[in-house]
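Re: that chain you flagged

S.,

Sorry for the slow reply, it's been a week of failed gels. I finally had a moment to sit down with the sequence you sent. For the record, here it is as I used it:
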Amino acid sequence: MKINNFFNFEKKIVLITGCSGQIGFDMCNFFLELGSLVYGLDLKNIKKIKNKNFFFFKTDITKEKNINNLIKKIFNSHKKIDVIINNAAKSYFSPFIKRTNNEIDNTLNTNIKGPINIIKQYYKFHKKYNSKRCSIINIGSIYGVVSPDLSIYESKDRISSEIYGASKAGLIQLTKYFSTVLAKDNIFVNSISPGGVLNKKQQSRTFIKRYNKRVPLGKMATTFDICLAALYFASDHVNYTTGQNLVIDGGLTAW
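Prediction finished late last night. Pasting the structure tokens below so you have them in one place:
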């Protein structure tokens, strides 16, 4: 195998949920630059992507019928989906003592039910069309692995919630489950758990400074760091990696 073929994504069909968010938006552009055809799913088309190979669908991933119709449409056009990135996520930042049942339901519906709907509906068409391969990548979080250090937050900061962390821990477990169940069908399922991703519009200087001190590499992640991890999992030549959770956190969880 020539090494330049390792990252050949020309005309690959890539489905990305949460395409209007920080990671999802950059992930879409990343695969578009590699020559892929990208289908972006979100409730709102906040960030417009102007590229002939990008197709936006306003979709609620918690609605199983919506997902079935969309995946059916993609298969009717391309007979396959090469890469699925379950990136859409919901979170609340209020103290747990104020958590409402509605907030719990919304978080679990988006972060757990949504990926299950995507994988379940995709699998039906994978079997129907005798697809050769698919790489499913779930975007988890370090807070699905460890609890947040509350000492680095100020009251005005967006403090990671208990239900968000629980949902991401659940998504990591779903990754392991589906990797074993779907292995026989040549479907690879892995997850990426980012640490804090730099976003100066939403993060205070104090928070960034304190967070960086907690990280051995002394800095926050960029979306490009997450895209590179997805690139590995998505490659057709990665044939012996499944059920893994790759933590991209600059060494934070290694302390």
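What I noticed first: The radius of gyration is 18 Å.

Talk soon,
D.
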